[in-house]
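As promised in the previous annual report, we have extended the structural survey to additional targets. Below is the entry for Peptidase M20 dimerisation domain-containing protein.
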Amino acid sequence: QNLETDKPIAESNLGLRAAIEIPSVSEQEDRRDNVFQMAKWLVHEMESLGIQVKQKDLGKQPGKDIDLPPLIIGRYGSDPSKPTILAYSHYDVQPAALSDGWDYEPFELTQKEDGRLCGRGTSDDKGPLLNWLNMIQAFKKAGQDVPANLVFCFEGMEESGSQGLADALKEESTGEFAKIDSVCITDTAWSTIDQPTLIRGLRGIMFYHINIDGAESDAHSGAFGGSLSEPMTDMVNLMASLVDSRGEILVPGIYDDVLPVSVEERKALGEIKMSKDSLDGGINGKLLHEDQADNLIGRSRKPALSLHGIERASAGKGASTIIPGRILGRFSIRTVANMSIAKTDELIQTHLKARFQQLGSKNELSVQLTGRGDWFFEEVDHWNYQAAIQATEKVWGVTPNITSEGGSIPIALDFKKVLNSNVVLLPVGRADDHVHSENGKSVSFSLIQNY
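The corresponding C-alpha cell record, generated without further manual editing, is:
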C-alpha cells in the first residue's frame, strides 16, 4: 500500500530536529528540566495526531530529592477486532558535548552528504520513537486505518536504569497495559549496516565495584614504596584474574549453564553478510576471532566480562609517584540464556575473595554488585515475529537476519513476564550508529522505511 511516505520524510526530519535540540539527558541532574521539556513536547506531538495521552507520575528518584520524568502512555485505536500492540521507546539520551570528540554539535541535527542524520538521539532513541508518530501521520494522509490498536509506552529514564518503570509496568498491567496482544521494542540496532535485522535475544548485565582500602590517604612512593601494602598492585592482580586477552572469562564455573549454540544457529550466523565495520561497529577494532560466526557468538550468545577502569588513582599531569590509599575498580559481565544472576554473583564473589586471599595482602577488600538486569530470549515462531518478518520482506525486499545482540534491555524481560506477551525487537538504527559514543547518527531512509 502506498502511504505517501515521501511527504512525511521532510516533516519527519523537522520533528526530529526539534527533538534532538532538547538535551534530555536523564543522567545529569542539571538537565532534568530538559527531560521534562522533552516529555511536554512529545505529549503535544502525540495529542496533535489524536492519540489519547496519559502522563504517569513516577515519584522521586530513589535516594534523591528530584522528580523522575513521567511515563508517557498513549492509546490510538480501540477496535476489538484488531490486535493491540504495545510500542516501547524512550525519550531520554546519553550525555554528549562537543568537547567529547564530536565533529558537530551533538544537540543539533546535522545531515551529512551521504544522507546520514547526525545528533545525540537520532538512533537511540528519538528517531525510532518518532517513527511511530510518523507512521500514524502517514496512514492519516493516505486516508487509511492503522490495522492494529496501539498502546505507547515512552519513558524518560532508560539511560539511567529505567528507574520507576518496572513498578509502573506492574501497576498498569491491570490498567492501561491490560489485554496487550504483543509488544514491539524499537530501542535496538541492525546487526549489519546494510541488511535489516530482527532481534530475538539480549544479554543481561551485572555491574560490579571492587573496593580496596589500604590507607587513609595517598602516600609518596619514594618515601613509602616497599614498606606499604599497595592497593593498586592488588587491584591489577584481581582484575587480571577475571578475563584473559582472548576474552575468555577465568572465573571457574561461569560457562556451566550457558545455553549451547545449535549447529543451525552457528550456520545462520556465518551466512549473514557482514563487513568488518558491521562486526566492529566501524571503530577499526581488533577482532578476537577470524571466523565471523565466532565473533557474533562471542558478542551475543556467550557471556562477556569487560574491565571498565580503576578510579581514585592520581590523575595529575606528568610522572606521578603517588601510591593510592584507596581505589575502586569497575567491571561488568554480560550474561546469556540460562545463566542465573544469583549463581553468577556467587561464582564471581567466591573467585575474587579466593584470589585476594592468595595474594596475602594486608589491605581490605569489598566486592559489590551495584546493578543488574536479566537476559532475554524469545520464541520467533510467534505471529508477532512472523508479522515483523513479512513486513520487513515487503519493505526491504530481503528476509531479515534473526539474531541475538550483546546489549542489555532489562525492560524487555519485564514486558514478557508482567504482560505475558511475546516481545519483538524491531531495530531502526544500524550497526555503525555509535549510539552511546561520539557522532551518533542514523540514516534518513532507514528511519522512514521501517514504518
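The chain is about 30% helix and 20% strand. Residues 151 and 295 are 37 Å apart (CA to CA). These points will be discussed at the next consortium meeting with the crystallography subgroup.
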